[in-house]
Amino acid sequence: MPAATPFRPIAREPADAPRYRIVKRVLLRAIEGGELPPGAALPGEEALAAMLGVAVGTLRQAVAELVAEHILVRQQGRGTYVARHDAARFLFQFFHVERSDGLKEVPRVELLDYARERLDDDDAAAALGLAAGAAVIRFANRLSLQGRPVVHDQIVVPAQLYRGLTEKRLRDRPGTIYQLWQSEHGITVVRALERARAVGADRTIARVLGIAPATPVLQVRRTALTFGDKPVEYRVSTIHTAVHDYVHTLSRPQ
After folding, report:
1. Which residues does 149 contact at the CB level (< 8 Å), separation at least 6?
2. Per-residue model confidence as pLDDT tens digits over 183-234
3. Would you say 170 and 180 are in contact if contact means Cβ atoms under 8 Å apart?
4. Model-level pTM?
5. Do residues 155 and 233 touch, judged by C-beta distance below 8 A?
6. Where residue 98 falls among pLDDT bands split at 50, 70, 90?
7. pLDDT tens, 120-162?
8. Contact (CB, 8 A) for 23 and 29
């Protein structure tokens, strides 16, 4: 490891929290600032603890919290890395729809529409912290599982955060949307706030999912957050639950 590192010894940090939380803050700043990009390996425990001027046990506490929050990932026998968004992380952390018998798979995604427009949705404005009339990109996807349409996603993102995002880039992306956000826009979704309620399918949802209007469906409103709990995406997912469930399992620290 070069002598210059992205870490500032915690002695220079304000002593307003337990030492392991200050270490966590230093690591987060290095990740958020790009000094430790997605996929980067952390130095070994003893070396990193020495760089920060803390005991190895203190470092381990900080790293354990970041692993539990899916910001870092441990690879057995290899070390600890900054987490990347990929299909496995999408399924584990952000996609909660599975067949009633427990079968879970990556959905087939179809882009249905795409538009650049001025924001006129009060819920989206509140979730994203934007004023009415702000420039946004709005697009819709249909997600199919086991060959049948199950989820309709309506997604809104601030245009200023996603410069260069085109309909073609969305349609042709090789991985998940969150992979695209991370690799091309430098935005890492670290967690999401969700609210769910039962509604009746309107005509648009009924047509997209191939069900009768007013069929009971589950509506999940999600605000995706990056570092510092900054909102970077708002989506409304409508799920046909005739043979699929919404299963959100709380993870334990690894």
Report:
1. 142, 143, 208, 209, 210, 240
2. 999 999 999 999 999 999 999 999 999 999 999 999 999 999 999 899 999 9
3. yes
4. 0.85
5. yes
6. very high
7. 999 999 999 999 999 999 999 999 999 999 999 999 999 999 9
8. no
Sequence-ordered strand ranges (E) for the chain: 72-75, 79-82, 97-99, 108-118, 135-145, 148-158, 191-200, 216-226, 230-239, 244-246
CA 236 to chain centroid? 15
Query: What separation, in Å, do the N-terminal and C-terminal C-alpha atoms of the chain show?
Result: 26
Separation CA 64–CA 226 (nearest Å): 19
Distance CA 87, CA 89 (A): 6
CATH of 87-246, one of 3.40.50.300, 3.30.70.860, 3.40.50.980, 3.40.1410.10: 3.40.1410.10
Burial class (CB in 10 A: 0-12, 13-18, 19+), 247: exposed
The CATH number assigned to the domain with range 10-82 reads 1.10.10.10
Please give the Cα distance from 226 to 211 (Å, whole number): 35
